[in-house]
Structures are given as structure tokens and as C-alpha cells.
Design a protein that fits this description.
With 461 residues, the chain is an alpha+beta fold. It has 11 helices and 19 strands. The protein has an 8-stranded antiparallel barrel. Strands 2-1-11-10-9-8-7 form a 7-stranded antiparallel sheet, sandwiched between helices. Helix 2 packs antiparallel against helix 11 and helix 9 packs across helix 10. It is globular. The N terminus is likely disordered.
């Protein structure tokens, strides 16, 4: 077996730890069934299940309802509209979906749940009643759609994602699910993800809180609320979707656009210090690990999908009960089990190719005032600026055709770094966001802001 193939297989101890975690979840959570999958390096490396039916367990191709993970699919459709130039995230909703009575809310605010809209619809519990009870957006929003000032804070809103689903339909001229299938599900090969259950699928159950008995939950067509929670999917399909959320796919969204979705946009709600929000994606701190994904629940089902970009590991957990096993916590634990037991090997160091243009004149120590910094050029062509000693502002930069560099991360993201040259062509200093980096601390030969004392460096006389 070659090294790469061997590394793709989990160790027996890791597989046992994964099985044990979902067994505990199913037992203590009193779930009729639990199914899970783990993705590493872009491949599904483990599937497991646990069930109350003797001698039988669901496999990774059995559908469960995934609830609010549907929102991440809707967010992908909106980002596709943005990338196609059909809208800007800063646009007010009214520009593209007029007549909603909440038109001042921006599309970005809806994606990040900062629009100030109500968490739920007025009237009966929408998740257990047919969508025909809410035939119009006015029925979804009610007479008092705002609970907070738009943009003031994060407040999770299911009606907000109903508006985004209607926005997709208005700009594409087709039903939300039809657009989703054509633009996301089919290109990614998610043929077991659908708006309505397709066999084989699990039934949704309510388990009595004080007795080991259960009864079936109703299965409703959510109508206009579909974009907020309608979908059914499988552990395998969601693992593939997690891989897309990690790497992107130019047939659907670029790596840059899915990276934008994963960035923190809204701070956590008070009382939920470990959970923030990006654009259609939840953000969570799980120990020292940063996870991105989404939770989901509808009557009869709970679901969790989490991924760790740093570890290149993702996990999906699905269960068919209204409450019981904390699917989101279990999925986060599965990511941690694999990442901690089998940390990824770093890619081998490789030098620049002989034909590459290597601007060595930029490499080495620079000084921002008296703060020592170092510039390194990486073999992928990027530049890294970091403080000597490691504490401070570290950033990566991308080379541009005009010889400048654009910040990709950290404090300098989006900022331009330029090497300023003397008349003889040698580099005098680096200019970055009004800061001057020189080869010597406060180099008198460089245009240091505020000038340099003409007497130079000296001791106490």
C-alpha cells in the first residue's frame, strides 16, 4: 500500500473511538437511530450507525431531515447570485424583492441573521403545520416583523431565510428547490438530497421525556419556509457538501466565495459566547479548535455538520428524534477524535522552481519603527510578513502583476504592500497601509513618518 493510501485509512483505535461516541449518543440520547460520517482530506474515511432495531442499522445513504442545514444551501444560492453580478450583498432587499415591508434590510444582514427580524413566524408552530397556513410572505413576517434594529446584533431568524429563498426565486424565475437542484445538487453529485423524502429514509419520532416510549412526528411541507429547513439528505451527501464548503467547486462557488461564507460576520448572541455566524454558516469554538458548519432540527430529527479547516476534517451526525442526542456536539466530537488522534502530515517542503522569479531583495528582516519584522517568500509565490518572535500581526500577501502585494489575512487583509525603490532600482523601504518598513530601525535614509532625529541613536550622556 502506498503512503497516501495508507494515510487515508483511520487507525483501528480511532475507528473504535468514533463508534463508541455515537453509541453513547444513541444510548444516552434515547434516539431510535443515529448515523454519522467523517470526511478527511476530501474523502469519506468512516461511516457508522447505531439503532434500537436489533441486527439492523441505517447506512450512509439513508435520508434524514436536516432542518436548518438547509439554510447553508440557500446561502450558497445567494452567493451564486452575487458572483454572477445579479446583486450585491450590501443591497437592500427592496431592490430585488419589493413589497415585503422589510425592504430596508440588506441581503448580507439576512444571510448573517443581523436583520433584526423575528426568530419565528406568527401563529402556530410553523415546523408542525402545513405551509398552506402561510401562503404569502406577509403571513410569514406578520404585522410586527422587526424585533430589533437592523444591523444592531445577531438574532437568528427563520423568516429571514424565507425571504432569501423568495429572493432566489424572484431572480432566477423558478422555484427554490428547482434552482437548488440545477445549480448545487446536480453539479456536486448530491442526488440523495431533496425537498421531500425518498426511500430509503428514516421516520421522525418524538421520544417521551420520562418513559421509554415514542410516537411519530408529522411530516409537513413547509411551503415558503422551505429555504429555512425543508431538506432531506444523507450522511454521505452532507459529507460531500462539507468538502465543498471547505474547498469550493468552480461549478458552484469558488474557493474564495466559500471562504467568505466561513468568515465571522456576526458576533454570538448574548449567552452563546462560543457560537457566531458567517454568511449562512455557524462558527463554533470546540476547545481550542475553530469549527464551521451548521446545526439542524425539525420535529422528529436533529442534525449536525461541522468542519475544521485547519485539520481538513469534517463530520456529519443525523438522528431521527425531536430531542435527545445533541447532534451538533457529537459531530464536533467526531472531528476532534480524528484530528487529535491522527493529526495531518504537513505537505513536504518544496523549493521554488528554477524558472520562478524569486525577489530575494524583499526577504529577511525589516523594521516598523523599532519592531523587528521578517519577510519570507513561500514556494507557492506568496509573501509572509511576521514579527520576530511570533507575537503580533502576521499576514500573507499575494503577488499582483504591477509588482505590488495584496494582503490575504490578518490585520493587513486587503491592504497593499509596495516595495519603494531608489533611483538605482534598489529597494529603499516597504510601504504598507501608511506604515514604512525599513532595513534598519528608523533608517535615516528612508522617509520615516515624522522624520528621524539628526543626532541618531545614543546613550544617556
Amino acid at each position: 500500500m502506498d503512503e497516501l493510501a495508507e494515510d487515508r485509512e483511520l487507525l483501528p483505535a480511532t475507528r473504535r473511538a468514533l463508534r463508541h461516541r455515537i453509541a453513547v449518543a444513541q444510548s444516552t440520547g434515547r434516539a431510535p437511530s443515529v448515523v454519522a460520517a467523517v470526511l478527511r482530506g476530501g474523502e469519506v474515511v468512516w461511516e457508522g450507525s447505531r439503532t434500537s432495531v436489533e441486527g439492523h442499522g441505517p447506512h450512509g445513504d439513508v435520508q434524514y431531515r436536516i432542518g436548518s442545514i438547509s439554510k447553508t444551501f440557500t446561502a450558497v444560492l445567494v452567493m451564486r447570485l452575487r458572483d454572477a453580478g445579479l446583486l450585491r450583498l450590501e443591497d437592500p432587499l427592496e431592490k430585488h424583492l419589493p413589497g415585503t415591508a422589510v425592504g430596508q434590510v440588506t441581503i448580507a444582514q439576512l444571510l448573517a441573521h443581523t436583520g433584526g427580524l423575528a426568530a419565528e413566524t406568527p401563529g402556530e408552530w410553523w415546523e408542525r403545520t402545513p405551509g398552506t397556513q402561510r401562503p404569502e410572505l406577509a403571513d410569514v413576517l406578520g404585522e410586527e416583523p422587526f424585533k430589533l434594529t437592523p444591523g444592531s446584533r445577531h438574532h437568528y431568524s427563520n423568516p429571514g431565510y424565507t425571504l432569501l429563498g423568495s429572493l432566489v426565486e424572484a431572480l432566477r424565475g423558478r422555484p427554490w428547490e428547482e434552482v437548488l437542484r440545477a445549480e448545487v445538487l446536480e453539479p456536486l453529485g448530491l442526488d440523495r438530497t431533496s425537498g421531500f423524502p425518498q426511500a430509503p429514509h428514516a421516520g421522525g419520532w418524538a421520544v417521551h421525556p420520562w418513559a421509554d416510549v415514542m410516537m411519530p412526528e408529522p411530516l409537513e411541507d413547509l411551503g415558503l419556509m422551505a429555504a429555512a429547513g425543508q431538506l432531506w439528505s444523507t450522511a454521505r451527501d452532507l459529507a460531500r457538501f462539507a468538502d465543498f464548503l471547505l474547498r469550493g467547486d468552480d461549478r458552484v462557488l469558488s474557493a474564495q466565495s466559500v471562504r467568505e461564507m466561513r468568515r465571522p460576520t456576526a458576533p454570538p448572541e448574548p449567552g452563546f459566547a462560543d457560537l457566531g455566524y458567517g454568511l449562512g454558516m455557524q462558527l463554533m469554538a470546540h476547545g481550542a479548535r475553530r469549527l464551521v458548519g451548521h446545526s439542524g432540527s425539525l420535529p422528529g430529527f436533529v442534525a449536525g455538520l461541522w468542519l475544521s479547516e485547519a485539520d481538513d476534517v469534517a463530520a456529519v451526525v443525523l438522528a431521527n428524534c425531536t430531542s435527545g442526542p445533541p447532534a451538533t456536539a457529537v459531530a464536533a466530537d467526531l472531528v476532534g477524535i480524528v484530528a487529535d488522534a491522527e493529526p495531518p502530515f504537513p505537505p513536504p517542503w518544496r523549493p521554488f522552481q528554477e524558472a520562478d522569479q524569486v525577489p530575494l531583495e524583499l526577504c529577511g528582516p525589516w523594521y516598523w519603527g523599532t519592531s523587528a519584522q521578517v519577510v519570507r517568500l513561500i514556494a507557492d509565490g506568496s509573501l509572509e510578513l511576521a514579527p520576530v518572535g511570533g507575537a503580533g500581526r502576521t499576514a500573507r500577501f499575494r503577488a499582483e502583476p504591477d509588482g505590488s502585494w495584496t494582503g490575504l489575512s490578518g490585520y493587513y487583509a486587503g491592504e497593499t504592500l509596495r516595495a519603494v525603490r531608489r533611483e538605482d532600482g534598489s529597494v529603499s523601504h516597504l510601504d504598507l497601509a501608511s506604515f514604512v518598513f525599513t532595513r534598519e530601525p528608523y533608517d535615516a535614509g528612508a522617509p520615516v513618518p515624522g522624520g528621524v532625529d539628526p543626532q541618531g541613536w545614543r546613550g544617556i550622556g
